[in-house]
Amino acid sequence: MELIKSLDYIGYQGPIITSSITFLSLLGKPIYLFMFIIGSILNYSLNNEIKMMIKEPRPKNPLPFIDDQLIKGSQIYGMPSGHAQIVSFAITFLILTKGSIWLILPSLFIFSLTLIQRWKYRRHTVEQLIFGSFTGSFLSYVCFYFTDFYLQTRKNIKHINFFSQI
């Protein structure tokens, strides 16, 4: 029983854990790290905005796990799941930046625990979890794409400058 509670707690803390893993993996890649931080802020803000637009309620009769007094503002709504969106953003970024398989596998496990925990305690429906996961992954891809495009453009400009000096 304690193991299950521990796994539930890991799932609940999934956004912090996976974001920390991705953050630490990017310490040697400052431009990607910068975009990961900016993207994470955008991702969180986007989640709040979507919740306020859709205003889909959370499932009824949630099981006790956290202090429900903490849920206020846009967080009273369930669509999309912020936990799923944040975890999928971090993991997608980790995968796209070619993070170590030894970091990706535990992150995917934590992602699974997060989705299960949010569904098990009736904080989100399956649809809310899927939509949150898709949104986080999509935004992560967009952030990665723009960072990669910037790096390629910068590399090409340096290449052009080198030949123009010959």
What does this structure look like?
The protein has 166 residues and is mainly α. The protein has one domain (2-60, 72-164). It is 73% helix and 0% strand. It is built from 6 helices and no strands. It has helices at 2-12, 14-25, 30-54, 82-96, 101-120, 126-164.
**Biggest β-sheet description:** none
Strand content: under 5%
Radius of gyration: 18 Å
Residue share in helix = over 70%
Following the backbone from N to C, one meets helices and strands in this order, namely HHHHHH
By secondary-structure content and strand pairing, the structural class works out as: mainly alpha
Question: Can you count the beta strands?
Answer: 0
Large-scale geometry: globular
Secondary structure tally, helices: 6
Distance between the termini: 71 Å
